What we know:
CATH topology: Rossmann fold
CATH architecture: 3-Layer(aba) Sandwich
Structural class: alpha/beta
Distance between the termini: 27 Å
Strand content: 15-25%
CATH class: Alpha Beta
Helix content: 25-40%
Bound molecules: glutamic acid
Largest sheet: 3 strands, parallel
Oligomer: single chain
CATH superfamily: HUPs
Order of helices and strands: HEHEHEHEHEEEHEHEHEHH
Number of strands: 10
Number of helices: 10
Amino acid sequence: MTLSVLSDDCYAMLTYRGRFAPSPTGPLHFGSLVAAVASYLDAKAHRGSWLVRIEDVDFDRNVAGADHALLRSLQRCGMKWDEEITWQSQRGVLYQAALDQLGRHVFACSCSRKEIADSRLRAGLSDSQIYPGTCRAGIADNKVARAYRLRVPDGAVACITFEDRLLGMQSQDLSTAVGDFVLKRADGFWAYQLAVVVDDATQGITDVVRGADLLDSSARQIYMQGILNYSTPRYLHVPVVINQNGEKLSKQTGAIAFDRGDNNLLQEALIPAAQFLGLIFTSTPQSIPEFWSRATELWAGKFGIQ
Length: 306
Ligand code: GLU
């Protein structure tokens, strides 16, 4: 009997599930379009599914109507999602179940940001928000629980190593670079780190393709996947678009919407996004469908996807 062994790429081709996970904090700008295009092209090149998830757990930052506006912009760009859209704000039960499952790895914390900074200064450590472990053994009698944190181990197990499909081997020591991190915030909102891990797992995501500003979060997410017995997806982090001042494009840095309702999205948004991702067209695509089919071929060539 001959046993056939599938290569990583073959396996991903059969089952590939990718996602774009925007936060509805305003209209999509060119930087978020680049992340959307990269995740879409990777899913198409693998002949896989592409899901869209609205990451609206931070109620303070959500902008009313921004979710539907960004979905319309994706549609105007010819991007089609393969399953129903999910909204994180409707998935609190899943996040609570994961928090319960994390059990003894989670502890209640009463510290404010100022208290964390002060205790680090007292201990002669630099003034950062790396958690100094104050509430690990329980909160003081006169204090109340504000947030819930995941206990990060010390020693070799705290060092998480993974291979990024573009950037190569990555490693981060969670105990020195991050510290015990928040899963449920003092304002009662679910933290991004918990929600994203639960959603990627429950949606069966095999490949996370997103901006390199989130590279630093991957080790935390991989660590949590291990404790929760979830499988770890493959990761690919694409370069982040910066403005003339060297700042990442975002609402805070004044990035404008790429979709202004009547502009030419092919010429002004899609082709520049593909070029930013290093795809070189030998002649200019003349329509959005032609753009997607040629960009998908170029992406498959760049990443050796058959
Ligand atoms: N919601 C995050 C953002 O808009 C993306 C999260 C992710 O792709 O993991 O920056």
